[in-house]
């Protein structure tokens, strides 16, 4: 199976006196897709940034490895972070030399063939995120880190992006760590869902069967209710009565 292996041991991160991550132990296997969910502020993005090398732990260790070669790690964020003065292709191959042909190929693969020379300002939100995904995939990362990548998209575009990601991973398996507020997204896409609470891993839930799972699957709906209910409990909110309404409550607010 292709993809990097991630080993996190006793990882802690404090900001000032505040401990945001507290003794995280996490192993992600090659080609495994793991989602991190949890109430706002429990440390999900901090953990992802440390795995990306964008932040350092206060204590503990992180190992990312792949037999035979150094692991390539790429991250994608909720904001597309495209440079408005560069073309679509220019953004995809940013910081590289001689990758034009690869950039064109990956843009074709994600449905943006022929749009190489346009500027980000003329793209829709979904097309901008596709461009950001193409940039992340250009170097065939062994580990893909996704921080709420589809969180700002409308429901239909988000579903299309989830399917695109699934099909790209089917063609080229790689290890993925996804932070999401969308419990259904985590259940559809992942092999395993990690629930974080107060800087710790509260639960690790291995999901049955191959991914992606069918939307509307009865077992998925049951797990979604259960997870949302336990997440709301973390925030001290009342017992759930309606999954959709409760899920909206978990989305970040402006
Ligand atoms: N650079 C920083 N300096 C100080 N505090 C920080 C910093 N980065 C994160 N924090 C704090 O760490 C805590 C966890 O933040 P983090 O972004 O990891 O949470 P999260 O679970 O991803 O939240 P959300 O779901 O709302 O994005 C928060 O209280 C946040 O204010």
From TrEMBL:
The answer, when asked if Cytoplasm is one of the entry's keywords, is no
Q: Which residues form the ABC transporter domain?
A: 6-223
Any one Pfam family here would be ABC_tran
> This protein's superkingdom?
Bacteria
Translocase among keywords = yes
- Per UniProt, which keywords does this protein have? ATP-binding, Cell membrane, Membrane, Nucleotide-binding, Translocase, Transport
Gene3D superfamilies, alphabetized: P-loop containing nucleotide triphosphate hydrolases (3.40.50.300)
What are the protein's GO molecular function terms? Answer: ATP binding
Give the record's family classification.
Belongs to the ABC transporter superfamily.
Which protein is depicted? ABC transporter ATP-binding protein
């Amino acid at each position: 199976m292709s993809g990097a292996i991630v080993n996190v041991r006793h990882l802690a991160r404090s900001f000032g006196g505040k401990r945001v991550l507290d003794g995280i132990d996490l192993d992600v296997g090659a080609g495994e897709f793991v989602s991190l969910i949890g109430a706002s502020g429990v440390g999900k993005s901090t953990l992802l940034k440390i795995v990306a090398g964008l932040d350092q732990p206060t204590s503990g260790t992180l190992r990312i490895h792949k037999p035979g070669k150094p692991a390539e790690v790429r991250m994608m964020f909720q904001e597309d972070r495209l440079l408005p003065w560069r073309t679509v292709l220019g953004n995809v191959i940013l910081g590289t030399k001689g990758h034009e042909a690869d950039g064109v190929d990956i843009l074709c693969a994600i449905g943006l063939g022929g749009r190489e020379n346009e500027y980000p300002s003329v793209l829709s939100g979904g097309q901008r995120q596709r461009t950001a995904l193409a940039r992340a995939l250009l170097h065939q990362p062994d580990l893909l880190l996704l921080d709420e990548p589809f969180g700002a998209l409308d429901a239909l575009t988000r579903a299309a992006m989830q399917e695109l990601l699934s099909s790209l991973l089917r063609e080229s398996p790689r290890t993925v760590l996804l932070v999401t507020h969308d419990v259904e997204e985590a259940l559809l896409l992942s092999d395993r869902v990690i629930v974080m609470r107060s800087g710790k891993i509260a639960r690790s839930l291995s999901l049955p069967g191959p991914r992606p799972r069918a939307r509307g699957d009865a077992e998925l709906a049951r797990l979604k209710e259960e997870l949302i209910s336990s997440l709301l409990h973390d925030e001290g909110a009342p017992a759930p009565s309606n999954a959709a309404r409760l899920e909206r409550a978990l989305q970040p607010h402006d």
